[in-house]
Amino acid sequence: MLDITAQVTALAAAALPVRRSRPRVLVALAGAPGSGKSTLAEALARRLRLGHGAAEVVALDGFLLDNAVLDARGLLGRKGAPETLDAAGFIALVHRLRAGQEVVFPLFDRARDLALAGARVVPADCPFVILEGDYLLFDEPPWASLAPLWDVPAWLDVPLPELRARLIQRWLDHGLSRAAATRRAETNDLPNARRVIAAALPARLILATRPEGAT
Fold it and tell me: Is residue 196 predicted with pLDDT exceeding 60?
């Protein structure tokens, strides 16, 4: 079990002062697959909602291309790599969020392995938006154009051996055998992780998650 209390506190402490000068604060949680972005984003949203206004989470996974499109492009086996996402659509969404607009966005359903269009809404008066995804601080075009749009860019720093264990467990939790889960992690997820880490842009906060009780 991970203790992320300190990370949530650090992110909230960075985001709240920005709210004094901006109607909307964009927090970006970037990191390799399996680094805990989704869990941390939801925990931060809960913290901000306690007395600080509305907060919504927008996940980059909602912009994964459909399996039929990936198959036609020969990319199904690389799902999760930068080229398997609608980068232009996500960047346009971030610009709309930055402008303070109401934004409708998709969610990725892991159980069904597909994105659900129009699944959630960020209202125009929502003061905090937490975006999470592998490529939010990625120094390759067109992703690098996102960096100036973040108010609080944060990087989740998790060693590769820990990422490997988490990614294998993720596929085990989805019903794969140990051999299939290991193969899926090592042939796709870990190459994506190494690519993300190698091209990571600077972050305002570097967050290292650790097991509860560890020092």
Answer: yes
Distances (CA, A) of 111 to 36, 114, 138, 171, 175: 18, 8, 27, 11, 10
Smallest CA-to-CA distance from 156 within 176, 136, 140, 172 is with 136
- Is the separation of the CB atoms in 190 and 160 below 8 Å? yes
Write the CA distances from 22 to 127, 183, 201, integer angstroms. Answer: 8, 46, 24
End-to-end CA distance of the chain: 14
CA distance 44 to 154: 12
Nearest-5° Cα angle at 205, 135 to 203: 45
Domains of the chain: 2-211 (3.40.50.300)
Question: In angstroms, rounded to a whole number, what is the distance separating the alpha carbons of residues 17 and 13?
Answer: 7
Residues 6+ positions from 54 with CB-CB distance below 8 Å: 123, 125, 126, 127, 128
pTM assigned to the model:
0.92
